[in-house]
Design brief:
The chain is α+β, with helices and mostly antiparallel strands. The chain contains 17 helices and 12 strands. The protein folds into 4 domains: 169 residues, no CATH class; 30 residues; 121 residues, Roll (CBS-domain), CATH 3.10.580; 76 residues, 2-Layer Sandwich (Uridine Diphospho-n-acetylenolpyruvylglucosamine Reductase, domain 3), CATH 3.30.465.10. It is 54% helix and 14% strand.
Length: 459
């Protein structure tokens, strides 16, 4: 093989590798990174960004890559067979004693195998691996030759894309969206998990991003303060009663109701109460200083509730059940707590995390989900339909428990520590003890001696 032939073959493999790298990097690169490079003045990023934004432009870009790969492969195979087979046939005929026809056939097979292996390794696998590892860099490096290819192959791309579109239309499977970088929430969650496994995200960052994705499917009923735990003030409460209630409460906002908690008419803010408390006049009531409150249905998802509260500029909302009664209360802080953790400590004065006591038992909130309690204890609570620990206790007892009452749930001893308005605030759970070593059964005692003459009867 002459140096010129080797150079041409290497060039064809390089062209194939260029198109492969361009295709895989274009479909895997992040638009945000390319946009950031473009904003910093990178000319290559400015060339590439319009292609990534336009679905049809990206479709033509991918088509140019595929045409380039196909043409370079065909030219490589034809050129290699034409130049290498005649040169290799005499050597094979001399070494193995074959006639001319058999030597040409054998040489053609050898050349085909060698060229295919070289092209697959150097022209397909290596550039594809590099493009997936460094998509931004490869996409920018290949954008200029790809722009030339788009210009040279524009007519070919139009014909092939038009033919493919026509066939898809006939099959009823055509979508006009083209290639787009669209991911479902499940795919985004998988990408976040991969970024965490790759060391790009800390565990806390991974948890926050995952929780933010779940706001679209998580209902407000899973986040809200339950009806039985709402601290509220009656609308006719006097100034002294309002000041005392606000001072004793850990919350900055308290709902105001009329007749019953099912008829909430507004809420009082600690700032407004503090301002009125400085005045000598004490003739005002809770209704006088209250603000308007937002009402949302229980079926609303957390992300929609947050958007509604932002639109209405409200920090607090009453969650209504299907009959129009009060199901619970939710605030912006409650929703942010789901994503960021405890933001202000305003929602739950009780400890959110399990507390290990001196005797080894755990103190847990009554509204803690059963799944989280099971993970903390290292056991699985079988059966039952209640979602929280308190609900599971009531479900087991069949009634509202009293403070100090104990119950066994799946072999775990649970003691009700604190009850408020029939709502279980805290419980103390003693994890089941596991033996350090398996107990071996004792050897059975020897049988008593048989009475005289019994051996004959047994025999």
């Amino acid at each position: 093989m002459s140096p010129l032939t080797g150079a041409i073959i290497a060039a064809l493999i390089a062209v194939n590798a260029l198109y492969v790298a361009a295709e895989f990097s274009a479909v895997s690169v992040r638009q945000s990174r390319v946009q950031q490079r473009a904003d910093q003045g990178d000319r290559l990023a400015k060339f590439l960004m319009p292609i990534l934004r336009d679905a049809h432009a990206l479709d033509r870009y991918i088509a140019a890559c595929q045409i380039g790969i196909t043409l370079s492969s065909l030219v490589l195979g034809a050129y290699g067979q034409a130049m290498l087979t005649p040169a290799l046939a005499p050597v094979i005929a001399q070494q193995f004693g074959l006639d001319r026809v058999a030597a040409l056939s054998t040489a053609a097979v050898v050349v085909l195998v060698l060229l295919t292996a070289s092209q697959m390794i150097l022209g397909e696998l290596v550039p594809k691996s590099l493009a997936l590892q460094f998509p931004t860099r490869l996409a920018l490096w290949t954008v200029v030759p790809m722009r030339w290819s788009l210009w040279l192959l524009s007519w070919f791309i139009a014909v092939l894309n038009g033919s493919g579109t026509a066939i898809l239309r006939m099959m009823g499977m055509y979508e006009a969206s083209g290639h787009r970088h669209i991911h479902s929430p499940q795919e985004i969650e998988l990408l976040i998990a991969e970024s965490r496994d790759g060391g790009l995200l800390e565990p806390d960052e991974h948890r926050r991003l995952t929780q933010a994705l779940k706001l679209g499917v998580r209902g407000v009923s899973a986040i809200m303060v339950q009806r039985s735990m709402i601290e509220a003030i009656e609308g006719s409460a006097s100034a002294d009663e309002v000041i005392r209630s606000v001072g004793e409460s850990p919350y900055a906002r308290l709902p105001v109701f009329e007749d019953s908690i099912d008829h909430v008419i507004g809420f009082v803010h600690v700032r407004d109460v503090a301002a009125r408390a400085l005045e000598p006049d004490r003739s005002w009531t809770a209704r006088t200083v209250m603000r308007d409150i937002l009402f949302i249905p229980q079926a609303m998802t957390a992300d929609r509730a947050l958007a509604r509260m932002r639109e209405e500029r409200k920090q607090l909302a009453i969650v209504l059940d299907e009959f129009g009664g009060t199901a619970g209360l939710i605030s912006v802080v409650d929703i942010l707590d789901e994503v960021m953790g405890d933001v202000a400590g305003e929602r739950q004065p009780l400890d959110a995390e399990p507390e290990r006591l001196a005797d080894g038992s755990l103190r847990l909130r009554g509204d803690l989900p059963v799944e989280e309690a099971a993970r903390a204890l290292g056991v699985r609570w079988e059966g039952g339909t209640a979602r929280t620990i308190g609900g599971r206790i009531m479900e087991t007892l069949g009634r509202a428990p009293e403070s100090g009452e104990a119950v066994q749930i799946s072999g775990v001893e649970v003691t009700v520590e604190r009850v408020r308005r029939h709502s279980i605030q805290t419980v103390v759970i003693r994890p089941p003890r596991r033996p350090a070593f398996p107990a071996f059964p004792a050897s059975p005692p020897p049988p008593p001696p048989a009475p005289p003459g019994e051996e004959d009867a047994r025999g």
